[in-house]
Amino acid sequence: YEWEVEVYYIYFFKNPVAGSSQASIMGDLQRLLNQGEYAPFTSAPIFESKFVQVNRRGEPISVHNRANCVTIGICAADPSSPMPNAMLVACEVPVSPQESTTNFWKLSEQPSHMEQLALTRFFPLKFVELSVHSTDKHHLMLKLVNGRSYYLELCAPPDQQQHLFHLWLQLISLLKPPGNTSNTEVSVKCKDFGTSETHAGTDN
């Protein structure tokens, strides 16, 4: 698919920190999807990054006295789609003692904080608008059709952050519709993945 070629070109050939094989740079969300529990995303190519949720002013939003960290992935839910058409949101969730015992060997290969990544939200891209909120601070804005907005700060190693944010800028440009298509009249039910702000609301 054309978008896959372009995204793969952006990521694999323009990324100086990326290895030559997909496995060497496979993200946490991609590894989760490859386990086969979330069809049809098992083999879907995905562009993903970790973000910290902030408010409009760029201040971190804490949930239970912890920064609200999420992993955002862009992919194609339909293999026949010529363009990405889905956004996946994942976050770290606590692992129950029973699940810890069941997945002992799997968890033994992960950090010992007893949390694991879980897919929490799925948004068709036609129902969301992804844009740049602050280039200097590496902030993106995710706006849903219900008017709620989320501000996300890219979380990456210092030596990779500028380049990775540039890749997101290219992907946003790729996803931008040719016309000013508005989705404000579309009514969908979707759950929050954190604290949101309405388009004309106050900062958190």
UniProtKB/TrEMBL annotation:
What's one GO-annotated cellular component?
A: nucleus
Among Pfam families, the record links this protein to: GARIL_Rab2_bd
State the signal peptide span: none
The chain positions of domain Golgi associated RAB2 interactor protein-like Rab2B-binding read 117-181
Listed transmembrane segments? none
Please give the family membership noted in the entry: Belongs to the GARIN family.
- According to UniProt, the name of this protein is Golgi associated RAB2 interactor protein-like Rab2B-binding domain-containing protein
Species source reads Buteo japonicus
